[in-house]
Write a structure and sequence with these properties.
Elements: H1 9-16, E1 25-26, H2 30-40, H3 42-55, H4 57-63, E2 68-79, E3 84-99, H5 101-168, H6 174-209, H7 233-243, H8 245-265, E4 271-285, E5 290-304, H9 312-379, H10 384-418, H11 424-431, E6 437-438
Antiparallel strand pairs: 1-6, 2-3, 3-4, 4-5
Length: 439
């Protein structure tokens, strides 16, 4: 006789409809997990520091247009064949660029580099939201898989106990018992794998938030998944090509490359600087006396025209032209990729919604089939193997339905990411579809 108690069918149906792994407890939603990840994720923290570093390009570029002031001083002991003396001198020099084409282009580049740093941070923000959403729903999916396996195990144990009882009293053959035992052994192995998968998913989430993963709010089974607004793939593709963050980033990279071409060509241009200097030189002979003291001051305009630098300037121009062309091709690739990702995500939402509706209907049919098969067993027209098959179909359908709902939500977030419009508010919209507690 099995040690497993008999479990009513209604309990099996209720158990598999949700995760019955813990008592009622408040759980973190997607927005709360994102807030934790934003504060603790190492990859996002690195992107934030890269943004801070990128902001320093602005003062660096502006420095080339501002005056430079230098102070110099020296003290020397001199011993010659005619005299031994000490010399002291100091000088102050000022240089203000009036025309330097390369410095002007460097300033424009610096502004673009600052913009690129902001765009890279925006990409990191968007990637963090997607990584959090995937990790969040991976945990829910793993919990669903474990719940399904455990519900299967409980149902098979019930059937195994009943088969053994029937065999003991001589109303059934040993075949039903062997079938139920084989299924029970298989589902036990599946349970071990499901426990491992859940641990892996939770560790991945913990990597993002740098702490133990809390209980997670679950998707309300009655919630209707939102459709794209507007429900027009071409509109999303156009927006992705125009506003996608990867496209904007490559567009800025192209502008930087174009400025680099102008900067390198500036190596052929003359330079004009305003210069001023003052110096004071004093020589003090050993044993007293001052000789050779001079003071001088100078203000002027300096003009320089590069004539030949061994071909280095022309080589740098050719290099910058090639890199500009590369940036143009990178921009073309980013636009094509944005169009592809928008189409894939849009179709993913539509097909996901259709799959969800089909699985919802399949779930209703599976529940009806299980009830009728169980009734058929009671009147002797169905076997226990038939009941086990019906239960397996019900459990699998419910798990697949949950997975389809999760993937549809993720596709919706990916669609907005492709269009460059994914924001924290979109995570809060998903939170509205979640239950506030596990139970």
């Amino acid at each position: 006789m099995s040690a497993y108690p008999r479990v009513p069918l209604c309990f099996v149906l209720l158990t598999v409809s949700g995760i019955a792994l813990a008592p009622l407890t408040w759980a973190a939603n997607l927005g709360e997990i994102h807030a934790l990840a934003r504060a603790h994720d190492a990859r996002y923290a690195a992107a934030r520091e890269a943004w801070r570093a990128g902001q320093e390009k602005l003062p660096q570029g502006r420095a080339g247009l501002l005056p430079s002031l230098n102070l110099s001083a020296n003290l020397r002991h001199n011993d010659t064949s005619n005299a031994e003396y000490t010399s002291r001198s100091y000088g102050l020099s000022l240089s203000q660029p009036i025309y330097r084409r390369q410095h002007l282009e460097s300033w424009e580049q610096a502004k673009l580099l600052g913009l690129r740093a902001e765009q890279e941070l925006a990409v990191a923000e968007q990637e963090l939201m997607l990584r959090v959403a995937r990790a969040y729903f991976d945990v829910l999916l793993a919990e669903d898989a474990l719940s399904t396996v455990r519900a299967q195990k409980q149902a098979i144990a019930e059937q195994l106990a009943a088969a053994r009882m029937s065999f003991d009293v001589g109303t059934a053959t040993i075949t039903d018992t062997h079938e139920a035992q084989a299924r029970f052994d298989l589902v036990t192995a599946q349970e071990i794998a499901a426990v491992n998968d859940l641990e892996v998913a939770r560790r991945a989430l913990e990597k993002l938030i740098n702490r133990e993963a809390p209980a997670l709010a679950r998707l309300d089974e009655q919630a209707r998944l939102p459709m794209p607004q507007p429900n027009d793939m071409n509109a999303w593709v156009t927006q992705a090509e125009r506003d996608g963050l990867a496209v904007a980033l490559q567009r800025t990279a192209l502008e930087i490359a174009q400025r680099e071409v102008a900067r390198q060509r500036g190596g052929h241009h003359p330079t004009v600087d305003l210069t001023a200097s003052y110096s004071d030189n004093r020589n003090v002979a050993i044993g007293g006396g001052v000789t050779g003291n001079t003071r001088s001051g100078m203000v002027g305009i300096e003009f320089a025209l590069p004539l030949y630098q061994g071909g280095a300037t022309q080589s740098r121009v050719r290099e910058s032209l090639a890199l500009r062309d590369k940036a143009q091709f990178d921009l073309d690739e980013a636009r094509r990729q944005a169009r592809l990702e928008a189409r894939q995500a849009f179709l993913g939402v539509l097909s996901g919604d259709a799959r969800v509706r089909a699985l919802e209907q399949a779930l209703v049919s599976s529940q009806a089939q299980l009830r009728s098969t169980t009734l058929g067993l009671e009147v002797g027209v169905r076997t226990r193997v038939d009941v086990l098959n019906a239960q397996q179909q019900l459990f699998t359908t419910r798990r697949d339905l949950a997975a389809a709902r999760y993937q549809t939500l993720i596709n919706g977030l990916q669609l907005k990411a492709a269009a460059g419009s994914l924001a924290v508010e979109d995570l809060h919209a998903v939170d509205a579809l979640l239950r506030e507690h596990n139970g």
